Amino acid sequence: MTDAASTGPLKRTPLRDVHVKAGAKMVPFGGWDMPVQYTGIIDEHRTVRRAVGLFDISHMGEFEVRGPDALAAVQRLCTNDASTLEIGQVQYAALCYPEGGIVDDLTIYKMGADRFMLVVNASNIDKDWAWVTSHSVGRAEWKNVSDETALLAVQGPRAEALVGRLADRDVTGIAYYHFATGAVAGVPAVISRTGYTGEDGFELYVAAPQAERLWSALIEAGRPDGLQPIGLGARDTLRLEMKYALYGNDIDRTTNPLEAGLGWVVKPAKGEFIGREAIEALRARGVARRLVGFEMAERAVPRHGYRLMVGGAPVGVVTSGSFGPSVERSIGMGYVPSAQAAVGSELAVEIRGATHAARVVKTPFHPSHTKKA
């Protein structure tokens, strides 16, 4: 969900030394020292699509808010309507600036009647914390629990069976974008049926000191399932095949949710929230550009920052691009004028001074296998 550049010493997740011992290639990512790959991006990608993969995403941030006005605070900050949430339900949303640009994309967990957890992107933790605490309302108490929380993702068609064998509760009844509490391998956890891959699976929130214990248990129990640890490289290609936005690439302060195809998480009928006026003004006058998915018509790989061309003139840039191992072709995302955003529209990508043909296609590039009920 984010890949913004950072300066200063790299932060480490509780599992950093485990990754190094396992032979992972470590890289800076959003200010963190993170594993980009273990055996190779394509191999890891296909493991998640065909079997089950284990990700360390403990770099993500978690904020708790509670109190009589916790809901009011979340409603003012977020574009989606958190009043519709039941306890145990998750919601995708955005934080926006008054001018309509995106502060961050996030998930909202309803933990109790007057208690929520907001999960934000790693490189945005400090920025988001300052934003939510300075724009909160009423009697709402905020706590940044990012450092004390670890997050592991178990993703793939065999994820349910693996987590089910280790959990002290039936996980088959946890619907998509819902969560429950329980223990996994004896470790107390929030067991959330969410992910960033398009596959079925869970994200497991645990106390940071328990992360290595849970990781090791999942690695051992998952051997018969073909489980492998997965780095951020494959996480990126998996989310790209689903056209999931990456903060810092596909969405940022300069992009409006309506341009980014995120109008479905904007609920103006709920009342006032930060950015509502600007977003609705854009809706009224019409969106001039849109984030599209495209595939290459030639053997060339689009990369972030390459220029998108129409009729020999630049119209935008590639925001995300790669070879898609599941779809077996090169794919990408980028903003183009609305007139060129229709499926089938012809584009070109400028790569090292040469243009290569591409076309806008229907997305997601790969079908989702998340559990809907």
List the helices and strands and how they pair.
Layout: H1 16-21, E1 25-29, E2 32-37, H2 41-50, E3 53-56, E4 61-66, H3 70-77, E5 90-96, E6 102-112, E7 115-120, H4 125-134, E8 141-144, E9 149-155, H5 159-166, E10 179-184, E11 187-192, E12 201-207, H6 211-221, E13 228-229, H7 232-241, H8 276-285, E14 289-296, E15 307-310, E16 313-324, E17 329-337, E18 346-351, E19 354-360
Helix pairs in contact: 2-7
From the alpha carbons, calculate the radius of gyration and give it in angstroms. Answer: 20 Å
For the secondary structure, the number of strands is: 19
Coarse morphology: globular
Q: Considering DSSP H and I runs of 4 or more, what fraction of the residues is helical? A: 10-25%
Which range does the strand content fall in?
A: 25-35%
Strand order of the largest sheet: 10-11-12-9-3-13
What is the rounded distance between the termini? 25 Å
Low-confidence stretches: 1-6
Brief description of this entry?
This protein is α+β, with helices and mostly antiparallel strands and 373 residues long. Helix content is 20%, strand content 33%.
Protein model, in words:
The protein has 373 residues and is α+β, with helices and mostly antiparallel strands. The chain has helices at 16-21, 41-50, 70-77, 125-134, 159-166, 211-221, 232-241, 276-285, and strands at residues 25-29, 32-37, 53-56, 61-66, 90-96, 102-112, 115-120, 141-144, 149-155, 179-184, 187-192, 201-207, 228-229, 289-296, 307-310, 313-324, 329-337, 346-351, 354-360. The strands form four sheets. Strands 10-11-12-9-3-13 form a six-stranded mixed sheet. Strands 14-17-16-15-18-19 form a six-stranded antiparallel beta barrel. The protein has a five-stranded antiparallel sheet with strand order 5-6-7-4-8. The longest helix has 11 residues, at 211-221. The radius of gyration is 20 Å and the shape is globular. The two termini are 25 Å apart.
